[in-house]
Amino acid sequence: MNEPLPDDGVVRKLWPAEAAAYRDHLLRLDRESRNTRFSGAVSDEFIDKHAHSISDFGVIVYGFFVDGVLRGAGELRPVGPLFSHEAEAAFSIEKDWQSHGVGTALLERILLSSRNRGIRLLRMDCLAGNRRMQQLARKFEADFTFDFGSIIGEVKAPRYTALSLALEAVEDAHGIATSMLDAQMRLFKVA
After folding, report:
1. DSSP codes joined into one string, the chain
2. 156, 121 contact by CB (below 8 A)
3. Strand 150-156 versus strand 143-147 pairing type
4. 31 CB contacts (<8 Å, ≥6 apart)?
5. On the CB side of 157, how many CA atoms lie within 13 Å of its CA?
């Protein structure tokens, strides 16, 4: 499913210190994208608090970066009691980068991370009118259920393997190197 990303974008994990970049991305979402991401209208204060929750235990956020700026994100959040085998995935992509394979790339990373953490059931809740999310879930053979005007897509993840663990470790190492290069580039632009 490896579709080329637009504008030489890069997908990597976000680190807790990047909560402000995540907040800025969520605040840049147009009204429709913000509503579909959060299943309704939310305040800027809510977004600030949500963005800073990326440091919570078990939360993993992957970001899509263009020229060092976060333009899309995919979240993996545990659901239920500690060490449960169920999690939720949610996605936010700025308008100019929608329908270009960004969601697919983010979901691939989310699926790998959920697999490696023993998540057996990954839920993707969306509003009934959110066709992009439904299409994305169908790419990965999600089972759909309907719940009070929302659609819940469920993807069952396979067990982790030594290869899946190694793949995530390599992607993380590449992500760390990329984030360090981006930080250096921003420093040189300022100077």
Report:
1. --PPPGGG-EEEEPPGGGHHHHHHHHHHS-HHHHHHHHTS---HHHHHHHHHGGGSTT-EEEEEEETTEEEEEEEEEE-SSTT-SEEEEEEEE-GGGTTSSHHHHHHHHHHHHHHHTT--EEEEEEETT-HHHHHHHHHTT-EEEEETTEEEEEEEPPPP-HHHHHHHHHHHHHHHHHHHHHHHHHHHHH-
2. yes
3. antiparallel
4. none
5. 26
pLDDT for 42-101, tens place per residue?
Answer: 999 999 999 999 999 999 999 999 988 999 999 999 998 777 888 888 999 999 988 888
φ and ψ of 178, to 5 deg: -65, -45
The overall pTM is greater than 0.90:
no
